[in-house]
């Protein structure tokens, strides 16, 4: 059975580092659900958040140890194995005719999402939450016409004062 | 002040580089102007692929980092096969490739190719240098990364204008890499449990790979063999880690390895694996590999643990750390040879009863006889280099290797065309050693342009072509598994290799009868200067033993006899 794990990968903020990471993933045929990258509290460190899908703990070890071999990878922590908070941001553009608009607003409120843009024929909904919550709102909104979806992929932080770099 | 090109060469000097293999072109004209002005030692090959394999042969033979220059685009893409070859076999290289000038990058300019992107999956690390101020740091890091830890190739792609830019050059004293220290000291407790396992084992077997040769720990492995009095086998890349005449050495293991080595693996109860990665060529059917053994994996690269074969014990760390400690702990534990005597004798009996062998046939030069004859004529310091195919396996079976770094072969990639340039590089690195290349009539054609380089520089390499008029290994598989359909594997034998060599300025000889192995061969080998020896061998000769694909090591097909 496939299991998902969220890895926080701290890398040198140097040109080419994303090529190295994505090149490794393709070369070793790892299954990646999502990958996102961004700046951190340290200007020369980028944090890459990878959700990897594996069949065994051995396969997970392979992902971690192969990634660790990359010269510009500083640290990898499996945040699924420690207490952590996981979030993803999604923006959904839904066709909103006059007759459906009220229903859509209802759904948005139930999910504690936000409407961030309204046009004559559409609304853009924004939601931050766990992947299952996001999957949930997408499922409900599919009853109307979804025009477009943009998702960031999951990111996570551990609970407590200790940052990943000190784990 | 100096320009980027001079900075490259100054840095190479500081790294102790004594020769570069390369080929000039548009993007590296300034670099080559610096080579000219500084009279930097450089071997001009006839193809970039020749340059990178030559650097690889140089690196494997000497343990130093091999250095390659090439131009952008096709110059750099011609290196790809050689970089992949070096990467799979953990050979330290630094390849400096020219890139189009900064303003032209990304515009599909003349001779532009994304070498950074192309080489990412086949290098230990790579760089694109767009600013000359990064050049000294990148060079320092590249050499450090290439030679430390598990060695491997590093590519530095340098924009053409970087070579031209003047700057205040200073070579850093140290490297600062947050994610890489190059040091691998493991946990001593891991060793203690292995020592415990050894003292309880009844049928322990040492199994050594290329990592032992790369880390220069052959002496310690030899101590272990002597002290424990247990049998030892190796991978193809591990040949030379122990001397061919070591008591207990069973020959190499795997698809075409010895009967004794493969059976010992299957019968062993404790397999002590050192610096190897359990390639599919060595394990046979993985689920049936060493079924009775606890597997101990001494390995620097943690990603190799459990990758192909699950280890019962792991000792993660540099062999230069773990093996001496292991030897000392074993000595303290009082483990010694006497208790393994019966097991050792059993393996030696298997070795005696089923040696590598071949059937003599009147009037024919048998490949085994040829290689054994050359081995007998060679001193222990001879470096044997191979290409890829049947001749490679015969060389591994019949050539006696006594020292590490004295058997050079493309193991992981199996790169045809590796041999001639690699032999050339080995000779340049080790001018005092005799260098013999074993190649085939298929492989030799894949880089035969390098005979010109060999002639120009009078590089004393003896090239022995095992000429069977077929792509022998392909033919063997077609014979065994494809109903003798020799699809596109027959070479028809019209090529005159003697004249080919002579056309490029290398002496050529042809041997066709077994008597010539005694009458002519030793004298040809002893002549100074490079030579090609075209040896006609029978076409339908199988490499045996053989473990067919998907079979266990003990299901090998035996063959031959004297």
Detail the topology: elements first, then pairings.
The complex is a heterodimer of chains A (167) and B (562).
Chain A: E1 3-12, H1 17-27, E2 31-39, E3 45-54, H2 57-69, E4 73-78, E5 84-95, H3 98-110, E6 114-118, E7 122-129, H4 131-141, E8 145-151, E9 155-158
Antiparallel strand pairs in A: 1-3, 1-4, 2-3, 5-7, 5-8, 5-9, 6-7
Chain B: E1 2-3, H1 4-14, E2 20-22, H2 29-38, E3 42-44, H3 48-62, E4 66-70, H4 74-77, H5 80-88, E5 93-99, H6 115-119, E6 125-129, H7 135-147, E7 153-159, H8 160-164, E8 166-167, H9 188-200, E9 204-208, H10 210-214, H11 218-228, E10 232-234, E11 249-252, H12 259-267, E12 270-274, H13 280-283, E13 294-299, E14 313-316, H14 319-333, H15 341-353, H16 367-377, E15 383-386, H17 390-398, E16 407-408, H18 419-429, E17 435-440, H19 450-456, E18 461-467, H20 472-481, H21 497-503, E19 507-511, H22 516-519, H23 521-526, E20 531-536
Parallel strand pairs in B: 2-3, 2-4, 4-5, 5-7, 6-7, 9-10, 9-12, 10-11, 12-13, 13-14, 15-16, 15-17, 17-18, 18-20, 19-20
Antiparallel strand pairs in B: 1-8
Helix pairs in contact in B: 1-2, 1-7, 3-5, 3-18, 9-14, 11-14, 12-15, 16-17
């Amino acid at each position: 059975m496939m299991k998902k794990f969220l890895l926080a990968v701290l890398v040198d903020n140097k040109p080419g580092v994303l090529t190295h990471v994505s090149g490794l993933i393709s070369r070793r045929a790892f299954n990646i659900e999502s990958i996102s990258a961004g700046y951190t509290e340290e200007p020369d460190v980028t944090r890459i958040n990878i959700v990897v899908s594996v069949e065994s703990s051995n396969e997970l070890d392979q992902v971690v140890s192969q990634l660790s071999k990359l010269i510009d990878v500083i640290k990898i922590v499996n945040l699924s194995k420690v207490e952590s908070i996981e979030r993803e941001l999604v923006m959904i553009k839904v066709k909103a005719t006059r007759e459906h608009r009220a229903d859509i607003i209802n759904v948005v409120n139930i999910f504690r999402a936000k409407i961030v843009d309204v046009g004559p024929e559409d609304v853009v909904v924004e939601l931050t939450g766990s992947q299952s919550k996001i999957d949930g709102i997408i499922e409900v909104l599919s009853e109307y016409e979804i025009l477009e979806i943009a998702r960031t992929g999951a990111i996570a932080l551990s609970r407590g004062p200790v940052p990943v770099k000190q784990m | 002040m100096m320009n980027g090109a001079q900075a490259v060469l100054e840095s190479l000097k500081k790294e102790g580089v004594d020769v570069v293999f390369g080929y000039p072109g548009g993007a590296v004209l300034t670099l080559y102007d610096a080579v000219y002005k500084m009279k930097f030692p450089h071997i001009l090959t006839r193809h970039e692929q020749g340059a990178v394999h030559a650097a690889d042969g140089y690196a494997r033979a000497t343990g130093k980092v091999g250095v390659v220059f090439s131009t952008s685009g096709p110059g750099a893409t011609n290196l790809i096969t050689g970089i992949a070859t070096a990467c799979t076999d953990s050979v330290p290289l630094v390849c400096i490739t020219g890139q189009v000038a900064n303003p032209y990058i990304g515009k599909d300019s003349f001779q532009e190719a994304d070498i950074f992107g192309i080489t990412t999956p086949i290098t230990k690390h790579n760089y694109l240098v767009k600013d000359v101020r990064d050049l000294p740091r990148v060079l320092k890091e590249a050499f450090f990364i290439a030679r430390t830890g598990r060695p491997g190739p590093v590519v530095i792609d340098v924009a053409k204008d970087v070579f031209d830019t003047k700057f205040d050059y200073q070579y850093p004293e140290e490297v600062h890499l947050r994610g890489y220290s190059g040091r691998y000291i493991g946990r001593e407790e891991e060793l203690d449990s292995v020592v415990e396992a050894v003292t309880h084992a009844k049928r322990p077997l040492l199994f050594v790979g290329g990592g032992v040769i790369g880390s220069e720990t052959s002496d310690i492995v030899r101590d272990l063999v002597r002290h424990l009095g247990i049998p030892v086998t190796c991978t193809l890349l591990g040949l030379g880690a122990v001397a061919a005449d070591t008591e207990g050495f069973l020959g190499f293991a795997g698809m075409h390895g010895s009967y004794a080595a493969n059976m010992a693996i299957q019968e062993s109860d404790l397999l002590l694996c050192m610096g190897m990665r359990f390639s599919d060529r060595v394990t046979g059917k993985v689920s049936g590999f060493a079924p009775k053994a606890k597997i101990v994996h001494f390995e620097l690269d943690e990603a190799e643990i459990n990758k192909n074969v699950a280890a019962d014990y792991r000792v993660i760390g540099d062999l230069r750390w773990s093996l001496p400690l292991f030897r000392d702990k074993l000595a303290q534990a009082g483990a010694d040879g006497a208790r393994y005597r019966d097991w050792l004798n059993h393996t030696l009996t298997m070795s005696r009863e089923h040696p590598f062998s071949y059937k003599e046939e009147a009037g024919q030069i048998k490949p085994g006889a040829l290689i054994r004859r050359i081995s007998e004529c060679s001193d222990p310091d001879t470096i044997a280099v191979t290409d890829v195919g049947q001749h490679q396996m015969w060389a591994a079976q019949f050539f006696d290797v006594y020292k590490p770094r004295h058997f050079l072969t493309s193991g992981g990639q199996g790169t045809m065309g590796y041999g001639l340039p690699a032999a050339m590089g080995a000779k340049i690195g080790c001018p005092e050693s005799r260098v013999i290349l074993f190649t085939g009539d298929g492989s030799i054609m894949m880089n035969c342009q390098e005979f010109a380089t060999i002639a120009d520089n009078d590089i004393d390499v003896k090239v022995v072509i095992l000429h069977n008029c077929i792509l022998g290994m392909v033919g063997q598989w077609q014979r065994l598994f494809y109903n003798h359909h020799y699809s596109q594997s027959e070479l028809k034998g019209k090529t005159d290799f003697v004249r080919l060599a002579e056309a490029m300025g290398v002496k050529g000889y042809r041997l066709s009868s077994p008597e010539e192995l005694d009458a002519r061969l030793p004298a040809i080998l002893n002549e100074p200067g490079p030579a090609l020896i075209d040896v006609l061998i029978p076409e339908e000769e199988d490499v045996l033993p053989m473990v067919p694909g998907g079979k266990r090591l003990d299901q090998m097909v035996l063959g031959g006899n004297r």
